[in-house]
């Protein structure tokens, strides 16, 4: 691939956020307890008590204020102490104030699902909007269900809910009608609160925390401990979130940029101070690593990169005893081993080999031949090493031998993808001059969007710790050849 010197123009948009107690998620239990929950482990820590009982919901408005309902009392909750304060008396007209779910829309409108208790104690569910100042509710319509226990808006404005009988549903905010996301997967009472977290990851739980695929309704256990009978979940801007980061090719100074995963557009973060970056990988501690790759420089450097500023720091000089270092991709395994795709020297098309690298010394160890065009590496959540071959497309790679297997021979590769990474949402992203989502089972790739970057060569999701007046989490991306 020919190196090209690129120029970037970008505008950075900053949104200021408050800070909260540690933890990605916050939950309320039926008895009024408030807990913070680590979204990575599912373990909770008690914050305090609201002083109210029979809580069955939780919602956060655009300024970060938390709301819940205790009977006909609409309350706010202090996320630092857990203390609750009544702000209004709920009025659903002839219907009981049996609130089962609350959620603020992107337009900051509070929606509520209530159950109209029948003789059996279970009646039809209705969708309402609620005036948070007066407590007066306005009927939208019936959902057609009887077991809706929680609702949450996605970043794109879709209202999702959890029904203990049906499972994951979407709800039409104009009519109240509910639609089953996957009739093949039902619901149960192990989930009574759901929320979209950073990166539009959908969480749900009661006594344990799950991740829920909002496209298939399949759930995956995260963990548990420190709480019971949660009835409401919300995300908090404090704690750890993730941003998609990438590094780009430049013969003088490789830049760092961030990419909006919903639109595919990017903005520049800063310069690394190193030329020829052609890879990116994140270790278990969240440190970002890359390698310089300049033809006329025999001393390719292993570096770390600060995701906040883009500044790089040299750690070691690479030493590949079999073939000189010309690293095209990096990826850390779940065991913390750094793998590299390395191109053999020579003019024209040359074979690529799989190596491991000792990050302390820079010494590489040859494993075996992978093919002729591997430009990206990424480990799946299940520990499978995937690669992107610009000729074959998506491949899996045997970490013991280096042998690559084409995921789908019917779908070839493209130079429009030169780096890949699995996101916290489980999706496989790839890019070069635009951002794509790649299906790991078929190798098919779908365009997300582009703009503000070109010639992408490294992608990673970096942990971002948000504090007072920090920027919002946005997906980041680095450019390269």
Second CATH tier, the architecture of the largest domain? 6 Propeller
Kindly report how far apart the N and C termini lie.
7 Å
Contiguous low-pLDDT stretches (5 residues minimum) are 1-23, 465-481
Structural class: mainly beta
**CATH fold-type name of the largest domain:** Neuraminidase
Rg (C-alpha, Å): 25 Å
For the biggest sheet, the summary is: 5 strands, antiparallel
Overall mean pLDDT score? 86
Which helices and strands appear, and what pairs or packs with what?
Elements: E1 25-29, E2 33-37, E3 44-49, E4 59-60, E5 66-70, E6 73-77, E7 84-89, E8 99-104, E9 110-115, E10 125-130, E11 137-142, E12 148-153, E13 159-163, E14 167-171, E15 178-180, E16 193-196, E17 202-205, E18 208-212, E19 219-224, E20 230-235, E21 239-248, E22 255-259, E23 266-271, E24 281-282, E25 288-291, E26 301-305, E27 312-317, E28 327-332, E29 338-343, E30 352-357, E31 364-371, E32 374-379, E33 385-389, E34 393-397, E35 404-406, E36 417-422, E37 428-432, E38 435-438, E39 445-449, E40 456-466, E41 476-479
Antiparallel strand pairs: 1-2, 1-20, 2-3, 4-5, 5-6, 6-7, 8-9, 9-10, 10-11, 12-13, 13-14, 14-15, 16-17, 17-18, 18-19, 21-22, 21-40, 22-23, 22-41, 24-25, 25-26, 26-27, 28-29, 29-30, 30-31, 32-33, 33-34, 34-35, 36-37, 37-38, 38-39, 40-41
